Amino acid sequence: MHAIMLKAKLHRAEVTHAVLDYEGSCAIDGDWLDLAGIREYEQIQIYNVDNGERFTTYAIRAENGSRMISVNGAAAHKAKVGDRVIICAYAHYSEAELANFKPRMLYMAPGNELSHTSNAIPVQVA
């Protein structure tokens, strides 16, 4: 049996560029890709906190240390500079892999400063 699980998340990153006339994809600071374990050309889901848009694209590497989140191509219609987005990658895991499974999550502060990392989402209280 296999399960599709959250592999990695960049939580509330700010869009720094929205480039309509680009081949497509989402450029993400290379340091964040490495820290999150997201590979270049890997499929990602983007959830726009500010306008509710949800869309699928793939990750490409932006310059390390750039703090860049560039939503490109047709997806540039779904996010503008300054929008806060949640970027998620999902993967298939076997039951054996799930025994020690922990997602990699990066939490962003204003200005795309990395606030902290975690491998668990706190329990939501009533």
Automatic annotation (TrEMBL):
Cofactor: pyruvate
Pathway in which the depicted protein is active: Cofactor biosynthesis; (R)-pantothenate biosynthesis; beta-alanine from L-aspartate: step 1/1
Name recorded for this polypeptide: Aspartate 1-decarboxylase
Recorded name of the encoding gene: panD
Catalytic activities: L-aspartate + H(+) = beta-alanine + CO2
PTM annotation, UniProt: Is synthesized initially as an inactive proenzyme, which is activated by self-cleavage at a specific serine bond to produce a beta-subunit with a hydroxyl group at its C-terminus and an alpha-subunit with a pyruvoyl group at its N-terminus.
Keywords for the protein's UniProt record, in alphabetical order: Autocatalytic cleavage, Cytoplasm, Decarboxylase, Lyase, Pantothenate biosynthesis, Pyruvate, Schiff base, Zymogen
Oligomeric form and interacting partners: Heterooctamer of four alpha and four beta subunits.
Location in the cell: Cytoplasm
Domain of life: Bacteria
Presence of keyword Cytoplasm: yes
